[in-house]
Amino acid sequence: MMQKLSDVCAFADERVSVSSLDSDNYISTENMLPNKEGVTRSAGLPNVPQTQAYQPGDVLVSNIRPYFRKIWLANCKGGCSNDVLVLRANQQVDSAFLYYLLSDDNFFDYATATAKGTKMPRGDKSAIMRYEVPDLPLDVQKKIAATLSCLDDKIALNTR
Fold it and tell me: What pTM value is reported for the model?
């Protein structure tokens, strides 16, 4: 059985003071790595008093040029640019499972197909929330996420 992404998560809308951030916990599209490779340190902070906040377990997705497949499962709290979508799982969904759902190429293909603009296409937030995802029990989600996480750890080890 399928359900809409909006049934399992929402866009987070908290704000954080930029003065409380540093190059390790500020995320922008520039320091998100393509092809689902995570993030690297930021080159700098924005010149605004506040920015969008994220929490551990949130899924951050670059909303500019979705075909670059930039995504990260937050392991700390921090802030990010407005060009980064912050998706927060609801209580019936494992955040790691949500990350793996959104890491799927089908999600990025969908986000690209529904994006607005041509030179710098941006994901359509309402279309993104209509993306269909499987409706699985929480225990099954956790098992799937744990298995995929082990595979990711092994890939990272082999890459090093």
Answer: 0.95
